[in-house]
Design brief:
Layout: H1 2-25, H2 27-39, H3 79-90, H4 94-113, E1 118-122, H5 125-129, E2 134-135, E3 149-154, E4 160-170, E5 173-179, H6 182-188, E6 196-203, E7 206-212, H7 218-230
Parallel strand pairs: 3-7
Antiparallel strand pairs: 1-6, 2-5, 3-4, 4-5, 6-7
Length: 231
């Protein structure tokens, strides 16, 4: 009997402690506020204005660009003028191409006089800006290694660019080219359509490369860029 009274007394004290803690935390006030807020009627949302439907055949423009000038309608061929202007500003003339080739061939002749193999490589737009490989001309194949190996290009500043030389023979078809590094070389030297390169073979798979620019504006652009960097 005494044990039963002791348990009831302990249970009563525990309940009083719990009630006191709830009063300190004010949880009953919080739950009442939540119930009250949930019971309040929600205000009606402000109706959104209806957008005017575009006329048939009319293109709807986003509100973010509605205030900007009208753009060319590329569906009607307006892009041609953009491409023509870009091509006119970037594509070298036949005279500029010929000038770069003439300078490269003169250097090639001087290298041949000292009995070192060399070849001239005019740059196309694809090879200069997009291609990941550079093919060797067929007449130069006799000087090249017969199997794949590491290759090095050395520019006029004596900086070395490492890449892979590939020799693929399949029947009568032979493909000799540089890759896995050519794209970086072209990008680092700002190669462009019409530029002409002289590859001077100094070792088994090592070439000294000389670049002749087709664009007469390249040197002036580089000079202005250097002056801005110095400032």
């Amino acid at each position: 009997m005494a044990a039963s009274n002791s348990y009831e007394e302990q249970r009563r004290r525990q309940m009083e402690d719990n009630r006191r803690k709830l009063d300190e935390l004010r949880l009953h006030h919080l739950s009442a506020a939540v119930r009250e807020a949930a019971a309040r009627p929600k205000p009606n949302p402000k109706p959104r204005p209806k957008r005017k439907a575009p006329e048939p055949g009319e293109l709807r423009r986003s509100g973010r660009v509605a205030g900007l000038p009208e753009q060319p309608n590329y569906l009607k061929g307006d892009y041609r003028g953009v491409y023509e202007a870009y091509a006119a500003s970037k594509t070298p003339t036949d005279e500029e191409r010929a000038g770069a080739v003439a300078k490269a061939e003169e250097l090639q002749r001087r290298i041949h006089r000292i009995r070192w193999p060399a070849f001239v490589k005019p740059m196309s737009h694809e090879c200069a800006t997009r291609s990941i490989l550079m093919q060797f001309p067929k007449h130069f194949i006799k000087y090249l290694p017969a199997h794949d190996e590491a290759a090095v290009l050395v520019d006029e500043a004596d900086d070395e660019f490492h890449m892979m030389y590939n020799a693929h023979r399949k029947g009568k078809h032979c493909h000799y080219y540089l890759d896995k590094g050519w794209r970086r070389f072209a990008a680092d030297h700002d190669l462009a359509d019409g530029d002409c390169l002289v590859f001077h073979m100094t070792q088994r798979a090592k070439f000294k490369v000389y670049i002749f620019r087709a664009s007469p504006d390249y040197e002036s652009d580089q000079t202005s860029d250097d002056s801005e960097d110095e400032e």
